[in-house]
Amino acid sequence: MTNLFTKRKCPPSQGRGRTSLYDLVIQTAFCFLLILPFSATSQEIATLTKEAEKLEISFREYDALQKYKEVLRHQPTNLNALCRASDLCSRIGHREEDKAKRTDYYKAAKTYAEVALKLNAQSAEANFVMAVAMGRMAMISTGKDKVQYVN
Fold first, then answer.
1. Domain 19-150 is classified in which CATH homologous superfamily?
2. Helices marked H in 4-122 — which ranges?
3. Residue 101 has pLDDT above 50, yes or no
């Protein structure tokens, strides 16, 4: 092994077992590159969440849902995004005329709510969106299905 500063060969006892400056720099750079995306993502998540809230306030619910989905791609355990996505799916599905699309939105709402409840079963918002999703599914279902969604 060669010392980078003196350009001399290291004795075998120094070259093995010790980390060279080059190895240290590479390891530090690698760690920095691993951490860098997470710090950028947290800023990006805050920005995406604010954009979604603005879209939701201006009644552009489909666009807001897409923003919350993007937040969930970066951070799948974001409780607020899960609850908001579930609520938006329930509301968008309620306005759908096509029964198949309505059912798909309600199933998505239920899925988001289930994940939110797994993260925090004590969350009032998570329990609320689950109740809404289950109620919507029960409203479009018949007979045996209604009993399944209520239980």
1. Tetratricopeptide repeat domain (1.25.40.10)
2. 12-15, 21-57, 61-74, 79-95, 99-119
3. yes
The predicted pLDDT at position 88 comes to: 96
Percent of the chain with pLDDT over 90: 55
Alpha-carbon distance 112 to 53, whole Å? 18
Q: Is the dihedral of CA 63, 74, 128, 115 positive or negative?
A: positive
Q: How far apart are CA 127 and CA 87, in angstroms?
A: 11
Nearest to 67 by CA among 42, 84, 43: 84
Q: Rounded mean pLDDT of the chain?
A: 81
Which residues pair with residue 9 across a beta bridge?
Answer: 2
Q: Which residue has tokens 């998540």?
A: 45
Q: pTM, whole model, 2 decimals?
A: 0.69
Task: Note the maximum CA span of the chain.
Answer: 84
Q: Who wins on pLDDT, 5 or 8?
A: 8
Per-domain residue ranges for the chain?
A: 19-150
CA neighbours closer than 13 Å in the CB half-sphere of residue 110: 14
Contact 106, 140 (CB under 8 A): yes
Residue 18: what residue type? R
